[in-house]
Amino acid sequence: MATPNELTAMRRAIAISAQGLGTTSPNPPVGCVILDRDGIPVGEGYHLRKGDHHAEVNALTAAGERAEGGTAVVTLEPCNHHGRTPPCRQALIDAKVSRVLIAVMDPTSRGEGGAAVLEQAGIEVERGVLEQEALLVLGPWLHSLRTGRPHITWAYSVGINEGHSDQVLTELRRTHDLVIRRYGAIEEGVLGGHGEDAFRVPTGPLGDEPAKVVRDFTESGARSVLIEGSDNEVARLLADLVDRIVIDVPSTPPSSVPTPASKLVPSEFRLVDAGCPGPQVRLIAIRESAGTIS
């Protein structure tokens, strides 16, 4: 069972892994923390983009020799194959860690899986540590694997001039691979963030066939897509495939007469968060089940 120090380290790994959102795709955003023999954090790292070192290697590099006999706390099962970089399970074995804690198992793991190979090397492995919390970051990537298409978020305003919400949307753009602006342009959420030869931005008109549009997104390497604006044609085209909606509504005085308004949250969505990030109220809702391509 994970110790309090190890749980703290896993939450730290989850926190730093979020810095890879919007740049790691098609790879997952992963974080890792290395604890020494005494349970003291001595290294941490996260994956930034495909082709760069993975989280475990970055954390081990920071820890150096202090990793020997220690514990690696990682949000996703260490990879078990040689792609653009060597397998992370081998880096952990070579570093002589004695224990590995994993939040989420990797459905793309090759062969026996990284966890099994670690165990064969005599390393203790604990699975499912704070799994649900780690899914806050890894969820869209896993959704993309499960459905064969990117996770789609639609952000729009009700009763607010949408031209005034750009500043509020900047942070949201940063965590998505592709952004469909309200005037139709398609951009990286982080311009140039994915690096070369690992990702491309679709060009030309998307067309009016949902299956083709989604296929273009998927083939670009995107795991997450943000559609902006209530009048966005792509949002209407992919309405049945939207997985999450982010709705900004105007704030009101403590006592006021309500104005007629359309339904804020569609019936097929469930409200999961509400807050005030600026001069408006922000609602976040998720679809109860993933939409499918007809």
TrEMBL record:
User: Enzyme group, top EC level?
Assistant: hydrolase
Which molecular function term from Gene Ontology is one that the record holds?
zinc ion binding
- For this entry, list what GO says about its biological process: riboflavin biosynthetic process
| InterPro entries for the chain | APOBEC/CMP_deaminase_Zn-bd, CMP_dCMP_dom, Cytidine_deaminase-like, Eubact_RibD
The EC number(s) given in the record are 3.5.4.26
Which UniProt keywords are listed?
Metal-binding, Zinc
Residue span, CMP/dCMP-type deaminase domain: 4-126
Domain of life of the native organism: Bacteria
**What Pfam families has UniProt attached to this entry?**
dCMP_cyt_deam_1
To which pathway does this protein belong? Cofactor biosynthesis; riboflavin biosynthesis; 5-amino-6-(D-ribitylamino)uracil from GTP: step 2/4
PANTHER family under this entry?
Answer: CYTOSINE DEAMINASE FAMILY MEMBER, RIBOFLAVIN BIOSYNTHESIS PROTEIN PYRD, CHLOROPLASTIC
Name the UniProt record assigns to this protein? diaminohydroxyphosphoribosylaminopyrimidine deaminase
